[in-house]
Design a protein that fits this description.
About 65% of the residues lie in helices and about 5% in strands. By secondary structure, the protein is mainly alpha-helical. The chain starts with a helix and ends with a strand.
Length: about 190
Amino acid sequence: MENENNKETQRPDGKTVSQSPLFQSILKKAEKYLEHPMQVTKLLNDTFKKAAAKKSIGALAGEVWENLQLLSRMIKAAVGGEYKGIPNTTLVGGVAILIYFIMPLDLIPDFIPVVGLLDDAALLAWFMTGIKSELDHFKEWDASRKARQEVVVHAQAPHDADTSFGTPKYSNQSEGHVHIGQGENI
């Protein structure tokens, strides 16, 4: 009996959460989401809103926030066709994690302050650890993509040069007519 009580008060384990019947049904739902990119986009937006609202709940929430941002960027890039090479199982698992995260009633209901995020955080940490090499590849790709975008933005940046060079300064003068000083015309 004492051993059972200890299990109930222990911090949830991500692997255990992932093997729950609830999460298994969410995996099936995630496969359906991936057939409809607009649903994934809405899911990403909902995840961002919830994470932003929970972000201030201590260090746990800060780490969850960073991991969710990384996972969301990877899913968005993959679903949008920008990032290739991510295994479908990783994509399905990532979408399932996000679905689980936004569910208010999961293994530990989210309305319970702080404790309600423990199962979400444990599941996310377990998943992120399991796909570490894929995340590292994505981070490299994302950093190089951002660097390329900065080069393009810099190349397109407006300049401060006088764009009127070589054009008449006054609309009431003809192009060959330049005003030198008082009363002098060339």
